[in-house]
Amino acid sequence: MSQTKSFQANQILDCKGLACPMPIVKTKKTITGMQDGEVLEIQATDKGSLADLQAWSKSAGHHYIGTLTEGDLLRHYVRKATASEAKEPPKHEYKLSNEELERMIDGGEKLFVLDVREPAEYAFGHIPGAVSIPLGELEARWNELSKEDQIYVICRTGTRSDLACRQLAEKGFDKTVNILPGMSEWHGPVRGE
Q1: Catalytically active residues, by annotation
Q2: How confident is the model at residue 163 (pLDDT cuts 50, 70, 90)?
């Protein structure tokens, strides 16, 4: 595994020296064999791979997280989407739009924002002050949250945050709100690590 900033890629794909379309061909083949939600680091030297991987990730339904540049080396990070992210509409009854949350933040309201994306996604950009507890860790860490707080739950597209809201509701958290459509279309303030 590769450790960069404060996250780890589950797998590394070496595409150094390869030109279009080979980085995409190799990425597609590799990500197919990965588990849902895992992060792939693609190491490439072709400058065109940045736009190619962004476009491919979007069209394939995966999440292009970001790219780190180290000299001529580009380290691209892509998270494999889960089947439920593409198919399951939000079910939690309490929802709030990105714009409404942004207005509340701009208005100086003290809010508890819970970001349930993976550490790599959080590291590349999150709402300032948001607490990171990935969805996969929520079951073991829900006791770090207060049932008295209004909890605004966000992920990339609203699917994982919907699942998190429902999990928390089962534990007695009746003040959870799913933020839609999530960080994929967030235009408010963002902080990276």
Answers
A1: 20
A2: confident
